[in-house]
Amino acid sequence: MRIIAGSRRGRVLEAPFGSATRPTADRVRQALFDMLLHAPWGGMECIEGARVVDGFAGTGALGLEALSRGAAFCTFFEVDRAALGALRANLAGCRMREMAQVFAGSVLRPKRAVAPCGLVFLDPPYGLGLPAQALAALFGAGWIAPDALIVVETGRDEEAPVEGVEILAERMHGAARLWVWRAGGEAG
């Protein structure tokens, strides 16, 4: 696993042993960031200078990729000790500690945000209905800007993580399904 593009391109990322953490594969991250950069609703402005949330961060691969591509700051949420160790090692190895904050706690119970974020990544364990819970908690604590892009990874066979929003993109990659929508983008 490595950083795909940007200032830290090629940097190898650590991952904890075992199956408690399921890092987003390089090819899935590549496809996701290509989509964010080239879709009509995306572009460099959705990443460059953005404040980012990486919930269920694991190794931090999604947030680190965003930072490498020009995001200004990323807040990572993770509860697993082994994953936290890998995440902190990855931040240090990429020399990005000053661009990040790590909460060793659940994204389902976030502290109040200092500033809202324009890009949100959620890659929870599959099949537990966690995206909707995490989004409700993040909205409630002021983490999500009114027009933020929200990216959620679910299992391939799972339904949409929330109802009543206009899905901008939905892509399948192996066992994963990526969903992208804009906060406040209710389906009409």
UniProtKB/TrEMBL annotation:
Checking InterPro entries in the record gives: RNA_MeTrfase_RsmD, SAM-dependent_MTases_sf
* A GO term for molecular function: 16S rRNA (guanine(966)-N(2))-methyltransferase activity
> What Pfam families is this protein classified in?
Cons_hypoth95 (PF03602)
Q: What is its EC number?
A: 2.1.1.171
Its top-level enzyme class, in one word, is transferase
Which keywords has UniProt assigned to this entry? Methyltransferase, Transferase
Sorted alphabetically, which PANTHER family does this protein's record hold?
METHYLTRANSFERASE
| Record-given protein name | 16S rRNA (Guanine(966)-N(2))-methyltransferase RsmD
The gene name on file is rsmD
